Amino acid sequence: MTLFNQQGKSNVVAESQAWIEGQRIAFFGKLGAFSKKEALQILREMGADVLERIGSDVDWIVVGADELPGEDISECLTDAVRRRLREGSAHLIHEHELWQRLGLVEQSPKQLYTPAMMAGLLKTPVRNIRRWHRMGLLTSFKVAHRLPYFDFEQVQNARQLANWIAKGARPVDIAKQLANFKPWVEKKSLLDLDLVVDGRRLLLRQGGKLLGANGQLHLDFDQDETVAASDDSLPIVFAAQPAYGRDEEEQGVRRDVPGDLENWKRDDLLKIAEELEDAGQFEDAIEWYRIILARYGLNAEVCFQLAEVLYRLGDVTAARERYYNAIELEEDFLEARVNLGCVLAETGAIPLAIAAFQGALVKDDGYPDVHYHLARCLDEEEQTELAARHWLRFLQLAPQSPWAEEAIERLGR
User: Fold this and answer.
1) What is the pLDDT of residue 245?
2) pLDDT tens across 171-219, in order?
3) Total domains, the chain
4) Is 389 part of any domain?
5) Has residue 233 got a pLDDT over 80?
6) CB of 20 within 8 A of CB of 46?
């Protein structure tokens, strides 16, 4: 990170700092660019009111660059502060973004996270990240060769999704209700939605009300008093809905292949396969993916998803072949190349794995996961000098990755 000389700053930089005057700022976690003492001095010289602790009057919460992005920040805040964040009267900002906005550091690409990196931070299967992205629950900062990259805000959104799902909500229900009420929530981060999970129902706390399906009021024991929903208010309602009716809801997901298959659309069949996979019914999911391929022909994305389920079921050989299929159909499918390399490495075919990873880097040298896996394989082949180059490149691309500590340890050997 390159810092500008404060004494010689331009008028443009000075103007970029005007917005912070009078703002109440507090820090969360360890700072990376400056010590806390230095940061306090800089911000106070600009006219900001730097708070000793995060209180209910805070305007900006600065998340330190050395704070693990997977940390559930909202759990560390008081109800009053979370309410201000939801209302938009307080804001979260990453430390590096703050210094950039103030003109104190050179503009540089923000830290981005691949699905695998995000999964590592949140300790959730990477397929969950991919599925949430396909469903529109996560928004990628960019997509390169089919690979989505996510920024810091989306890491926090994914953390929120994981929390809701762990409490009983289903991704399909969350997506359905967000879509139904898009005009009211499309500009909000998932962190801004105060949802309460009650069994499989999702209730929204809004304006002092705890609302469920059809706008009915529910008792909110976290509030000091209960208020009635007014007729002239239009609530944002989140209510979990069964995918196929009550009978199927009890069983999980529809399993039987319908007799009128020709009347079904490809996306409908794909949805069933994905929900079966979500429910852990891998053999049924595999059958549906194969039905899709048989009916609509080979497709790189479907081959990739089938490979993922086959791998989860333990059929590594079949998974490897489906990854090959995906690459043959779409040679720029980087995740398929990387997963193929991982499967080859797992089965002991290290030279072939190295070739797969090197092929991925030819397509995109900026894919940090590839450098990580390639470096591990090269270390195993005792090509330590070449491995060191990829460990360093990985740290350059993803210094806040959950695998960064391993890279530093390997370089120190």
Assistant:
1) 35
2) 877 777 666 655 545 555 666 666 666 655 666 666 666 655 444 555 5
3) 2
4) no
5) no
6) yes
Range of the domain at 18: 11-101
Structure pTM?
Answer: 0.61
- The CA distance from 362 to 73, in Å, is 38
Residues facing 50 on adjacent strands: 25
| Rg value, the chain, Cα | 24
- Shared domain check, 122 and 97: no
Strand 60-63 and strand 91-94: the pairing is parallel
Q: How far is the first Cα of the chain from the last one, in angstroms, to the nearest whole number? A: 26
pLDDT score of 267: 85
CA–CA distance, 378 with 387 (Å, rounded to integer): 5
Residues 211 and 119 in one domain: yes
**Where does a domain end: 56, 74, 101?**
101
72 and 42 both lie in a single domain: yes
Among 155, 180, 215, the domain-final residue is: 215
Q: Is 63 helix (H, G, I), strand (E, B) or coil?
A: strand
H/E stretch holding 92 reads strand 91-94
Domain with residue 69: its CATH number is 3.40.50.10190
105: three-class secondary structure by DSSP = strand
233: burial class by Cβ within 10 Å (0-12, 13-18, 19+)? exposed
Helix (H, G, I), strand (E, B) or coil at 320: helix
CA distance 411 to 388: 6
In a domain, 325, yes or no: no
- Closest by CA position to 14, among listed 104, 95, 91: 104
Same domain membership, residue 185 and residue 155: yes
User: Do 174 and 183 touch, CB atoms closer than 8 A?
Assistant: no
Sign (positive or negative) of CA dihedral 105, 72, 129, 85: negative
- Asked if 73 contacts 47 with a C-beta cutoff of 8 angstroms, the reply is no
Distances from the Cα of 262 to the Cα of 228, 256, 257, 259, 295, angstroms: 49, 15, 11, 8, 9
Torsion angle of the four alpha carbons 378, 383, 387, 388, in this order, in degrees rounded to the nearest 10: 160
Q: Which amino acid, one-letter code, is at 33? A: A
Q: For residue 68, is it within any domain?
A: yes
